[in-house]
Amino acid sequence: MSVLSSIGRFANRYVAARARHRSERILLSLPAELRKDIGFPEIFETRESRRAATFSAKVI
């Protein structure tokens, strides 16, 4: 594993996280009724619970 491959992986994760946050911001700017129609609250809650489960697994 070279330094350049590590930097490349970090850059890819950064780009993916930035796109995810941008999408969430756009979805959160929509009216609540429209977000419910497309199922965004459930998607957001599922991801948050998955993140909590992953975090707790790493701590244990």
List keywords for this structure.
single chain; 60 residues; elongated; mainly alpha
Characterization of this structure:
The protein is mainly α and 60 residues long. Helix content is 90%, strand content 0%. The protein has three helices and no strands. The protein starts with a helix and ends with a helix.
Share in β-strands: under 5%
Span between termini: 28 Å
The portion of residues assigned to helices is over 70%
**How can the largest sheet be summarized?**
none
Detail the poorly predicted runs. Answer: none
Order of helices and strands: HHH
Number of helices: 3
Work out the radius of gyration: 16 Å
What structural class do helix, strand and pairing data support? Answer: mainly alpha
Question: What is the topology?
Answer:
Layout: H1 3-29, H2 32-38, H3 40-59
Write a compact overview of the structure shown.
This protein has three helices and no strands. With 60 residues, it is an all-alpha fold.
